[in-house]
Amino acid sequence: MKLFVYGSLKPGGWSSHLLDGGVEDDPQEGSIRGSLYDNGSYPALKLDDVDNVYGLLYELKMPATDLMRRLDHLEGYPSLFDRTEVPVAVGNCVEFALVYFGNEESLFNAPRIESGVWAV
Residue 53: which of 44, 63, 65 has the closest Cα? Predict the structure, then answer.
C-alpha cells in the first residue's frame, strides 16, 4: 500500500514526524490531479482536473494500522478530510496510492496555490 503526501507530512513539515516508522525511507516524487488551497498551517486538496499537485509517494510498512490511526486523527477523518485511492504520476509510470483530500467545503475558500506545491 502507498501513501501520497503533499503538505505538512512532507519532510520538514510540522507533522512529518507522524510518518516515522510507518513508511519506507525512500519516497518518490510524484503528482496527482487536483487543486491545492492554503489554509494557513496546512494545505487542503480538492480532487479535480484543474491542476497538478506535487508531493511524495511513500510505501507503507505493514501492518499500517497504527500509522493510519495517527494520520486519520491528524486529518480529522472523515469529517474535515477524507481519503481515497488515486493515480499518482511518477516519471513515466502511474502508481496508485491513498491520499487525504478536503471533505469540508470551507477549506476551499482559502487562496488557491497555483503552483501545486506546498512549501514546508
Answer: 44
